[in-house]
Amino acid sequence: MKAKVISFLALSMAIILVSCEYESPPTQNTPDVETQILDKKPHDGDLIIFEGDLAGNDTVMGCCPNAGPSPEYTMDVVSDKFPVEFRGEHTGNIFLNGFGRHLPWAYKVQFWWGEVPNDYFIEIRGGTVHKDKRTKILTATFTQEDTCWTWHNGVEEIIFIDFTLLRDPLRRAH
After folding, report:
1. Are residues 22 and 71 in the same domain?
2. Do 49 and 111 have their domain in common?
3. pTM for this one?
4. Under 8 Å CB-to-CB from 11, ≥6 apart: which residues?
5. Do 26 and 72 belong together in one domain?
6. Domain check: are 78 and 15 in the same one?
7. Could you tell me if 58 and 74 are in contact, meaning their C-beta atoms sit under 8 angstroms apart?
8. Do residue 75 and residue 24 come from a single domain?
9. C-alpha 123: how far from its chain's center?
10. What pLDDT score does 92 carry?
């Protein structure tokens, strides 16, 4: 009886040791594993590009969790659809964020510059969003069906603009 118990324990230990040996990560990279590896690489900021009625091409750090920060960004307000005082190249702060299915709009862009009380503020809500699952690059296309508000000196104006936003989370190459 003692020999059977010892044999059973030895067999059990052997099975446990063998099963632990094979609990290593897979040796082949599947698309899901590549995506997970890409997500864990250190983040070098986001390349944010605007094309259309708004123009810009700048890399920012720390953009844009739900409540900020709102990093510095240089944008060119190129469309004559904007009030005259808004047009031109401005260095200010930017905030970008996507929203879930529960709201009537998919993405929000905010950009502001100037000194209080004469701040200039632009907010656009809407867009059609596409996010590449592998590269994490987001493209949001805004059309004149989306709403753009401008504020300056307490005056609010609604305008309709077209632009494309590309947001590329830059990753370090190792």
Report:
1. no
2. yes
3. 0.70
4. none
5. no
6. no
7. yes
8. no
9. 17
10. 93
Could you tell me if 65 and 98 lie in one domain? yes
Total count of domains within the chain: 2
167 — pLDDT class (breaks 50, 70, 90): very high
Q: 107 with 165: CB under 8 angstroms?
A: yes
How many Å apart are CA 11 and CA 102, to the nearest integer? Answer: 56
Q: Specify the pLDDT at position 101.
A: 61
pLDDT tens, residue by residue, 49-90: 999 999 999 999 887 766 667 899 999 999 999 999 999 999
Can you read off the two tokens belonging to residue 108? 């929000």
Q: Both 28 and 107 in a single domain?
A: no
Q: Find tokens 């900020």 and name the residue.
A: 68
What average pLDDT is seen over the chain? 79
Q: Is 6 helix (H, G, I), strand (E, B) or coil?
A: helix
> What span, in angstroms and rounded, lies between the C-alpha atoms of 62 and 46?
8
Q: What pLDDT does residue 67 have?
A: 66
Same domain flag for 15 and 49: no
Q: How far is CA 88 from each of CA 23, 30, 54, 173, rounded to the nearest angstrom?
A: 59, 47, 10, 35
* Residue-range definition of the domain harbouring residue 76: 35-171
* 120 pLDDT tier (thresholds 50, 70, 90): very high
The span from the CA of 105 to the CA of 98, in Å, is 9
